[in-house]
Structure formats: structure tokens, C-alpha cells
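Entry 14. Ran structure prediction on the chain below.
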Amino acid sequence: MPIEVDEARRLDEIAAATIQVARDKGVRSVTIRAVAARLGGSTAMVTNYVSSRSALMVNALRRTEEEWGQEMDNALEGLVGEARLEAAITWMCTTQDDDEVMRRLLMEIASEGPEAGAAIEEIRTATSRRYREELRTLAAEAGLPDPALSADILHLVMRGYWLTTLEDPESWPDERGAHAALAVVGLLRGSPGQGSAD
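Output, C-alpha cells:
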């Protein structure tokens, strides 16, 4: 009789193994074979749940987004208006635990071409749009004059910041990124920024 495996639990295990492989060996080393080896089983242990390399990365992103959502909720708890937007921006500029690895995976997913498949494209687009919508809601709560445009600008700023932290992490500590992003919020609000964080 086959052993029953909880699918959600197995997907979480695969996500954790994917992140571990990316952390230990780099994002380019994430393969079904490497993840299966990390789990101590055959490739079927992975392919029964995740069918491709792209799907491996998306599964890891799904799990991390759940954690990020909880962390963001904690960062915003009890705050209203401008304070919520500023706390969200500051949190988005924070790098801890596996954030760098996940940013690399996110960039890898973003760089996947049409061969990644329609399902991956759909998830990638939905994730990007969800981030932008969260920013629009926060911009509206903060009373920024044009929440939709503000969300577009902040979305581009944050995506650019995440890429920049991968290109040159020593030059872009959390505080410098948050300072620059909050200066953009100030400009969107109509008040000038506070100058350089250097």
C-alpha cells in the first residue's frame, strides 16, 4: 500500500530544499535533481509535485510570499495612513534570512522566457500585479495625490532596489535603500527628500 503524503507539506519541503540549494550553491544550481538530492530521495519525489525547474522556483516563491505577507502584516500592525506606507517601504528595503536568495530566485523567474510555460507566466504576472496593488492601497491610505501613479513609481523603485542589492550589496545597505525610497514617497507627497544617506 502506497504511503500517503500531505501535498501541502511536501510542497513546503520542496520549497525549503529549493531555497537551501540556492543558498548553498547559487540560483543556477537549482534543478529537480539537486532538490531531490537535498531531500534525500529520487527525482520522482519532486516531479510528482513540481514538474519543472521554473515550477520549483515558483513554488519556493509561493512559500516565501506567505512568510513575507505575515512579516509585512507584523510590520504594519497598529499603524495608519502615512506611517503604514513608510513602514511597508522600510520593511521592503530590509534584507534578512533568505531575502537575498529569494530576490535572486525572483529575478531568475522574471528572466524566464516563453519556454517557462503559460502557468509560470501567469503566476509571475499575478505576483507582480499583486505587489503593485498592495502599494496602491498603501499609497491611497497615505493620502498620496495619485495612488495609482504612486504605486507604479514605488513598484519600479522597489524592483530596482532589489536588483541593485544583488549587483552591489555593500553599497546598498538597508538604511540607504529605505532612505532613497522614502525620499521618493516624500516627492510623491509633494515634500522634498532629506538628502543623501551617505
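The chain has a mean pLDDT of 88. Will compare against last week's run tomorrow.
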